[in-house]
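Section handout, structural biology tutorial.
Before the tutorial, make sure you can parse a SMILES string by hand: atoms, branches in parentheses, ring closures as digits. In the record below the ligand is NAP, and the chain has 301 residues. In the tutorial you will relate the predicted structure tokens back to the input. Do not try to memorize them.
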Amino acid sequence: MNKRNLGNGFGISEIGLGCGNLSYGYGDPIRLLQEAVEHGITFFDTVSFHKNNMAEDIVGDALRFYKSKTCVATRCDIGTKKMQLRERIQAMRKSVETSLNRLHRETIDLCYVAHMDIYVCVEAFAETMQQLMREGKVRYWGLLNADLSIVQKANTIFPITAVQNQYSLARRNAENKLIAGLEKLHIGLVAACPLGGQEMMNRYNYECRQIKQSNSEKQTAQRMTRENARIIEVVRNMAEMIGATPAQVMLAWILQQRPWIVPIPGTRLRKRVYENIHAQAVDLTEYEWNMFNEELARHKI
Ligand SMILES: NC(=O)c1ccc[n+]([C@@H]2O[C@H](COP(=O)([O-])OP(=O)(O)OC[C@H]3O[C@@H](n4cnc5c(N)ncnc54)[C@H](OP(=O)(O)O)[C@@H]3O)[C@@H](O)[C@H]2O)c1
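Predicted structure of the complex:
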């Protein structure tokens, strides 16, 4: 598996694994994660503090014996606007401690600060993160769903390693300004929902009848917009042309954008982990790249 650097020399596999939707109720997530390591994935992006979310526990259990080979990213809670600043800093520290316990690790490799209202007291959050890094509890920090202005501000207080925002063919223009800014600041982008998220892929999978879907999966598939359905069509045509799968084309498109962007596709199926990893072997020629982007540009997003 090829490697990529986010910011500050943080090196990881060029395709990570989005672990936010893993659950003990579906398949064998432990085996899935361990096979991902065996296939060369070293970056596992998980989620903390969501109600009933088991993602951190699963990642912690599965990677317990692979710590030296793997890096884990998670989010840190910073309380709510109603709280005093002191209480919010306490919430932040508590969240990091809870994640460390669940992950069975001494250090979180990449910790994102998650809330939109970080604007209110970005200095205090950045300084606390710096402290947590000095204490060895966090290796690198990042921002989640951030716009360029907050990235610039936070980065002047303490250098950021990565921003995690949604980025895919279905959201390809939304992040252009952010990407240009990150490039100047040498900060990496972790591309969340790189396959357009569950709505987009459920529809594709539904049409392909690849797997039996639950009622809720069928409902999300039906909610997909007409624009996304057209994007899927363009992707499918390109995939047929170059002999790859649609998911591989979507990931290859992200990988070819910039060498410091790392997609984190999520899947609950082992065979798809393997399929998605092989996107790294898909290299669109200049002709294919131009044709693909021209086709995509015909469809609004
Ligand atoms: N920053 C944010 O706001 C934000 C928002 C949402 C998610 N995230 C993070 O981003 C990560 C990825 O997001 P996501 O899983 O929601 O979206 P995604 O990676 O864009 O898409 C996942 C969907 O695609 C399907 N899929 C995966 N590989 C496939 C393949 N090769 N062929 C066909 N279908 C495939 C999955 O179904 P199966 O599981 O059935 O394979 C699932 O429905 C998550 O771990 C999450 O933590 C971040």
